[in-house]
Structure formats: C-alpha cells, structure tokens
Amino acid sequence: MGYKDSRIHDLEARTVWRNNWVAVGRTDQVSTPGAFFTGTIGREPFIVSSDKSNTLRAFYNVCCHHGNIVEFQDAGEANQFVCCYHGWTYGLDGRLTKPTKLRGIKNFTARGNGLKPIAVRTWGPLVFLRLDGYPDEDEYDQKVLPLMLELEEMGFSSGMRHVCRRQYQLNCNWKLIVDNASDGGYHLEYVHRDLSSNLDLSTFRTEVGDIYNMQVCIGKADGGDSAKRQRIGTKAVYSCIYPNLLVNRYGPWLDINIVLPLGPDRSLMIYDFYLKETFANEMSETELANFIDQSLQDSDQVQQEDTRVCEGVQRGMESTAFDVGRYAPGPEMPVHAFHLQLARDLRAGLESMDISC
Ligand code: FES
Ligand SMILES: [Fe+2]
C-alpha cells in the first residue's frame, strides 16, 4: 500500500521530505557569488543560491506577492531574483528589495516579506535542505561518519572532478529505488550480469548505520574487458543515506544519485558523475573521452536494468495478487532498516495529526 497510495505519498510529504536533510544538488553549482540552482521536493519548489558574500542560502521559490514561481531556470548566475509576473525583486539573500506599485498599501513592510528561507547545509560535495528548519541538534555528520571515512579513503570531498549529470524518470514509487539499492547485493547476479562479472560477489559485505547503509565489494581489476574492469577498479562502495541519497564510489568513479518523488508511482533520479582527478590527469584527451563514454554507457545499462525491475515491482504491487512481501534475512537487512526508519517518520506524522485534530 505504501508504494501506490496517494495518502501515504501525502504523509511522506509532511514527514520524510520535511524533517530530514534531503540531498538536492552539488556544492560546485553554488560555489561563486550569484550562482544558483532550483528544484522541487515533492510540491515544494526551492532555490539554492550563493549570496554576495558567498554564503550558501536556500529559499522557497515562491513569490510572496501572489505565489508565482520566482526563478524558472534550472541553474544560472544572478545578481537578484525578479518575479516575472509583477516585477517584485529579491536579493540573493532572499530579502524583498523592490515590491512594485504599492503606493498607498497599509500594514506592509518589505522587511516583513521576502523569499521564505529553508535550512541548508553541505556534506562532502552535496547540498541538503531541511524544510522543517534547522534541527535543535544536528547529528548528521556523526551519524554518517563511518561511511564518510570509507568514502574519503577512496576520494570523495576533494580530488574529484564533476564530469556530467544525467536524469532518469521512473514509473515507480521512490522507495522502490532505495529498496533496490539497499538489498545487500541480492539482485546483482540476476539483474546485472555484466556488472557482476567485474565484481567478486563472495566479498560482498554490508554495514547498516542509523541513517545509512554501506555495501562494499572487491572488484576484479585484472584482465577481462579492461575499460569495464577499470571502471569498477579494485573496490566498489554502494551506499544509501536516508531518505533519498545513493552514493556509489568505485574505481576512479563517484556517482551520486538523488532520488525525488514525482508522484505515488513516479520518481526522478538525478545522477552526478565525478572522476578522480589523478586518474583523469594521467590520460590523454582522447583516452579520457573514450573511457568516460564507455563508462557512461555501462552505467546507463545498469540503470536500465534497475529501471526494469523497479517498474516491474511497481506494476506487480498494483495487482490484487500482491499483499506483503518477505525479507531475505541476510542480504535484505538494509532494506528492513530503511523501512523501520520510514515507519518511524510516518508514525510520528500520524501522531502529530492526531494531536492537532
Ligand atoms: S506574483 Fe510575483 S510579483 Fe506578482
Ligand atoms: Fe541495481
């Protein structure tokens, strides 16, 4: 039911997508004053910008006049944000600097208006938003520390070059994407034959933390199809951070996937690919271009294979034949942990509704 019901989708919008740090983009998109990007978490449009003093800011992308979307571009550079409807203008810090044609208005101050701020933070190369504001105590860094250490050992926060972004829309609930990425490698040998042939699946190990899971596998770096093996290298780390972030680090590649809900049975996956600087610097321009091209094709194949099963499960779950499934006790521990975390959020949401009714 939780994968197709619009009431659960709405409850998630009030809980999961508000009271957790939700990954939305990259720090390099907003590394200079005036740089910004926009996006949507469910039905909440946002702008992330770097203000004139290069301080990271985030706001609802909603004009306080009549509610128009203020910035329609996905990303860019700006000195200010001007609403295209009636020209109300906002600074990069969200302040309302020019409300137009308000002569004679009463009980209104520009200072009392402006773009509504959103809590924002970074972790590694990523930007996160929390719609419910800053938590009293932010334990995020602490909670993901073991994963951070594992990733940093291979290269994560620095020494990585952003190569490109790819987006996929899937006809499935967002949780099926996280479930699929959290099954402890269970599906690899069945769904990803090509990828599996470059991994030593007998070495697969899984670690489950409070808000993350980490799956580590040794790669078969020697022999075989060299470009494919080079892509995976000697070690692969596949991880999920609650609720919507998949961080995959293998060989010279870091691929980060942000998962966002578009509806109860539709999701968006935003892939950002990074390549290790030292690896890229050792290649000629042509070698590098070929390697990137081949790797992106391989990655696309893996995603197509995942899309097929995620969408297949969505269709199957919508049948009257399916009620509840079972967890495989060993490998699917991380899926179970994800569902427990989700249940905590949804229960808290239901309890707060009871109180306010
Ligand atoms: S809605 Fe933005 S200026 Fe009117
Ligand atoms: Fe997969």
UniProtKB/TrEMBL annotation:
Gene3D superfamilies to which the protein is assigned, alphabetical: Naphthalene 1,2-dioxygenase Alpha Subunit, Chain A, domain 1, Rieske [2Fe-2S] iron-sulphur domain
UniProt entry keywords in alphabetical sequence: 2Fe-2S, Iron, Iron-sulfur, Metal-binding, Oxidoreductase
Pathway(s) served: Amine and polyamine biosynthesis; betaine biosynthesis via choline pathway; betaine aldehyde from choline (monooxygenase route): step 1/1
Superkingdom per UniProt: Eukaryota
SUPFAM superfamilies in the cross-refs: Bet v1-like (SSF55961), ISP domain (SSF50022)
GO terms for biological process, alphabetical: glycine betaine biosynthetic process from choline
EC number: 1.14.15.7
Function summary: Catalyzes the first step of the osmoprotectant glycine betaine synthesis.
Family statement drawn from the similarity comment of this UniProt entry: Belongs to the choline monooxygenase family.
Name the UniProt record assigns to this protein: Choline monooxygenase, chloroplastic
Organism: Branchiostoma floridae (Florida lancelet)
